[in-house]
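Today's session is about reading a structure prediction critically. Students often jump straight to the picture, but the first step is always the sequence itself: look for stretches that repeat, for charged clusters, for runs of hydrophobic residues. Only then move on to the predicted structure, which in these notes is written as discrete structure tokens rather than atom positions. Here is the chain we will use throughout the hour.
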Amino acid sequence: MATLESPVARYRVLALRGLVRQSLTTTDLWQRALRDGDVDVRRDALQQLAHEPQLDSSLLIEVNGLLNDDDALVIEAAAFALGEHLDVNAVEALCVVATTHDDARCREAAIAALGAIGDDRARSTIIASLKDKPPIRRRAIVALANFEGPDIDAALDEAGEDRDWQVRSAVSQLRSSED
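Below is the predicted structure for this chain, in token form.
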């Protein structure tokens, strides 16, 4: 535990990884890591946390708060963790990231998380993201796999004519898997 207090961020990251491997993490330890002043520690903590099988709800609230972090890669990791834990309480915040964040990686991660969660409140956000950059449009096609309805069919029809061949291919693959 002494290295968790190290002034060297890399040592704190390595200590956390070791505790995760040994299943010795606690809610308090996770909260300290998520609140760490160093972006590398927060980012690594989020990546580790995404794979934890059970989390205290207070940790998901903490992760949700990191969607407002100053570092884009922390936000991306927070979105990934929320999607992995299917946190329906994060849908509104993820929709905000997906529609307003300046960094395309953050928008893409938010769309992926919204698709994994599959909550109907995200439907219009995911459809709207079909107008974003190609990687985000491709991610939106995958996200739409968890939704049904005429609006989804219409969005997929339009995306099937997208100027990006990978978007068109994703639509084709999705449609062939539905048959």
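Discussion point for the tutorial: The two ends are 53 Å apart (CA to CA).
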